[in-house]
């Protein structure tokens, strides 16, 4: 008999927004769910858990200086106009955060923000945008992702999710997956995939290391890779093939 994970448990597992393929468990094989919380709001306590996870597992991406976050559109929305992000908390606590040209930002450790029970808040409509960790080794082309970066991104994402969902669901998912390491769980002989966003719609994605390669699943502007497959090293690269840009309309 096939055992299905409860919908809420799947939502908790993918709280930061990835897609997962869980062969032998899910029906259909690929499950896509949204965050339990509004995706563009994270508690500062949860962000600190992400920062701690980044520090703990930094060896996965040793050339990444700090954990950064990125604002991404969702549901076909375009990039936000004049986005602003800040930490808001009790007693009118406000700490603005600096965005770069790619809508990325870092979150400092702040005892004052923690004491104020702060939240990281984006000044955009909640249903159109989300905030998620973004781990990228410098110097790689825009269409290349390093596997160790993706593994670390997943670990920080899950650490944040675990702080933002009820403890009951954390323990339930640990029990269902038979591990506390959600990024690397396996099911029998299957190796579940984790889904990641790309910067543009895709026509293909290939995982490469040395003289071997593997074709990855893509769906729109997302690609999926089995993070727990230790036969691929952290320096393996995912090469993304972006779809051609639409032709400009005739004058």
User: What is the rounded Rg?
Assistant: 18 Å
Order of helices and strands: HEEEHEEEEHEEEHHEEEEEE
Fraction of residues in H or I helices: 10-25%
Number of helices: 5
> How confident overall, as mean pLDDT?
80
What do you see in this structure?
With 251 residues, this protein is of the alpha+beta class. It has 5 helices and 16 strands. The chain has helices at residues 7-13, 44-56, 111-115, 147-164, 167-177; strands at 19-21, 30-32, 41-43, 68-73, 85-89, 93-97, 104-105, 119-122, 129-134, 144-146, 193-197, 202-209, 212-215, 217-219, 222-225, 237-242. Strand 12 and strand 13 form a beta hairpin. Helix 1 (7-13) crosses helix 5 (167-177) and helix 2 runs antiparallel to helix 4. The longest helix has 18 residues, at 147-164. The radius of gyration is 18 Å and the shape is globular. The N and C termini lie far apart (60 Å).
Observed structural traits:
single chain, 251 residues, alpha+beta, 5-stranded antiparallel β-sheet, 4-stranded antiparallel β-sheet, 5 helices, 16 strands, disordered N terminus
How does the SSE layout of this entry go?
Blueprint: H1 7-13, E1 19-21, E2 30-32, E3 41-43, H2 44-56, E4 68-73, E5 85-89, E6 93-97, E7 104-105, H3 111-115, E8 119-122, E9 129-134, E10 144-146, H4 147-164, H5 167-177, E11 193-197, E12 202-209, E13 212-215, E14 217-219, E15 222-225, E16 237-242
Antiparallel strand pairs: 1-2, 1-11, 3-8, 4-7, 4-9, 5-6, 5-8, 10-16, 11-15, 12-13, 12-16, 14-15
Helix pairs in contact: 1-5, 2-4
Provide a brief overview of the structure.
This protein has 251 residues and is of the alpha+beta class. The chain has five helices and 16 strands.
